[in-house]
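Something for you to look into today, if you have time. Just paste the record in under my message, thanks.
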Amino acid sequence: MKNSVYLLLIMSALSFGQSKSKAANVIVNEETSQKNLEVYDFDEIEKFLNLDDQKVHVVNFWATWCAPCVKELPYFEALQEKYKDQNVEVLLISLDFPNQYESKLKPFIQKKNIKSKVIAVNDTDM
C-alpha cells in the first residue's frame, strides 16, 4: 500500500516537470488560517513525500484555476476532519502561479476556510 501511494505521488510530481531551481522562499506557517504560506520548489517537496512519522499522508496536487481540483477539495477536507485523531494528515500542494499567491490563493484558502495544510510550489519551470 505504501509503495502504491509513493508511486502515485511520484507520477503526479513527474507529470508537472522537474525543478532546476535551488532556492525557494519559505515562510513558516503554524496556523490553519494560512495567513502565511509555505513555498517550496519541486526538489524541496520531496521531504513531504518521504516523511517517517508514523502518519498516513494524503497528498493532493491542485490549483485554484483547476475546476475539478477545486470541486474535490471538500472531500479532502472531510477526510482530514474524519481522521484527524487517527494519525492521518492531508497535504494540499498548490500549483498556482507565484504571482497569484496574494491575489488568488490566499483569499481562496480564507474564503473556503481550508483547514488542511496548504503549501505552494514555486518553480521556474512552471
About this structure: The beta strands are 38-40, 56-62, 88-94, 117-121.
